[in-house]
Amino acid sequence: MLCILRELLAFYPAAPHVADEVQVEDHGDIAFYAGDLLGLAKTSVRNYSIAITETATPVLREVLAKQLMAGIQLHGMVFYYMLQRGSTVFDTFRSL
């Protein structure tokens, strides 16, 4: 397990983050809905992953894998949309 963690830590410096000097703008409802969409994408990725491990049909597994990849792409798009605007899920829900 420690070996896996070390392998992943190599990516930490390249991880996107909001710089300290960047002002977080209030996007109101857009930030809320983007956060909601991000949560939906995360849930769909989790559910597709579970479904893939539970199915015994190769054709269905292939379809679910395509849907999983689409969910991962959606998650990335929404995350980077929020990041570019200085918003994270935590900022969105902190204001509630």
Question: How would you characterize the overall build of this protein?
Answer:
With 96 residues, the chain is mostly helical. Helices cover 70% and strands 0% of the residues. The chain has one domain (27-94). The mean pLDDT is 77. It holds the Pfam family Coat_F. InterPro entries: Spore_coat_CotF-like.
Main attributes?
single chain; mainly alpha; flat
Topology:
Blueprint: H1 2-9, H2 29-54, H3 58-84, H4 89-94
Residue-averaged pLDDT: 77
Count the DSSP helices: 4
Distance between the termini: 37 Å
DSSP strand tally: 0
Number of domains: 1
Oligomeric state, counting identical vs distinct chains: single chain
Helix and strand content put the structural class at mainly alpha
Q: Secondary-structure element sequence?
A: HHHH
Q: Tell me the radius of gyration.
A: 17 Å
Q: Which strand-content bin applies to the residues? A: under 5%
Give a nutshell description of this structure.
It is built from 4 helices and no strands. The chain is mainly alpha-helical and 96 residues long. Pfam families: Coat_F.
